[in-house]
Write a structure and sequence with these properties.
The structure is a single chain. The chain is of the alpha/beta class and 241 residues long. 43% of the residues lie in helices and 17% in strands. The chain contains eight helices and seven strands. It has a seven-stranded parallel sheet, sandwiched between helices. Strand 4, helix 4 and strand 5 form a beta-alpha-beta unit. Bound molecules: NADP nicotinamide-adenine-dinucleotide phosphate (NAP). The site of NADP nicotinamide-adenine-dinucleotide phosphate has 30 residues, from helix 1, strand 2 and helix 6. NADP nicotinamide-adenine-dinucleotide phosphate (NAP) binds next to helix 1, strand 2 and helix 6.
């Protein structure tokens, strides 16, 4: 039986690129998504690399019950994970003045609480020597001027990675994060051309990151056996101007 990776938000964008990279390396893939079943099925067909299994599972990270859904799926299929990529995230662009506590809590639940309690639930189903990778964000390092909740939750993700290191020692698991800058996924493609140009002007490489070049960094964090507690920033050389 080969190695298994579970990737939350694995059917599009960054998660799908990581799935492709790991699938090509022989990992069996379990990809969760929120609601777009048609795209999940399409991703499942596209990611059929020789000798691997590709499984998809609907599990919305804004719902507490999804933790049990994922745990039950793994136990029913007798799957033990070698890697866990906690990638799915949410934002809220409501202005500060009208932001509701419910909006704030929803982003915190999806970006921070869900991965913590999913990890607590499945840590016993991870093989020793395994690896956990969180998706953080450059916006957890540089102040975010649009979504207060997003920037603060991604900072919390970076702090989580540092703090989890010791808690995962008994399980012989490593934990790291990738903090991407601006990656050309649906998340960014919907932005108006003027805002995209403004972003490109702040990146030394003058362009958005391709999800596939970012995926290589996730793979490195999973396969390198000495990387632990790192937050790897991948922003193409971002500087505010
Ligand atoms: N793109 C960037 O520039 C950028 C930069 C820094 C960090 N990030 C972070 O990278 C992660 C992925 O972003 P992306 O750009 O790859 O997004 P994306 O292209 O929009 O892909 C989103 C994926 O996550 C799933 N997803 C969305 N909301 C979910 C939810 N509530 N529960 C479960 N799955 C959910 C989607 O499933 P459905 O198709 O069913 O909705 C899809 O599989 C996020 O944590 C984001 O904060 C992105």
């Amino acid at each position: 039986m080969g190695k298994y990776v579970l990737i939350t938000g694995g059917t599009k964008g960054i998660g799908k690129a990581v799935a492709s990279c790991l699938g090509k390396s022989g990992y069996n893939l379990i990809l969760t998504y929120a609601s777009d079943t048609a795209t999940a099925e399409k991703a499942c067909c596209e990611l059929q690399y020789p000798g691997i299994q590709v499984l998809t599972l609907q599990a919305d990270v804004s719902e507490r019950t999804s933790i049990e859904v994922i745990h039950r799926y793994l136990t029913e299929h007798d799957i033990h994970l070698d890697a866990l990529v906690l990638n799915a995230g949410m934002t809220c662009r409501e202005p500060f003045e009208t932001l509701l506590p419910e909006d704030w809590e929803r982003v915190f639940f999806a970006n921070v609480h869900f991965p913590v309690f999913l990890l607590q639930k499945v840590v016993g189903l991870m093989n020793k020597g395994g690896s956990i990778v969180f998706t953080g964000s450059l916006m957890g390092i540089q102040p975010h001027s649009v979504s207060l909740a997003y920037g603060v939750t991604k900072s919390a993700v970076h702090a989580l990675v540092k703090n989890l290191v010791k808690f995962l020692v008994p399980y012989e698991l490593r934990v790291n994060a990738v903090a991407p800058g601006f990656v050309d996924t649906e998340w960014q493609k919907t932005k108006p051309a003027e805002i995209r140009r403004n972003i490109e002007n702040k990146v030394a490489l003058g362009r958005f990151c391709d999800p596939d070049e970012l995926a290589e960094v996730y793979k490195m964090l999973i396969v390198n056996s000495y990387l632990n507690g790192e937050v790897v920033v991948v922003d193409g050389g971002y500087s505010y101007k």
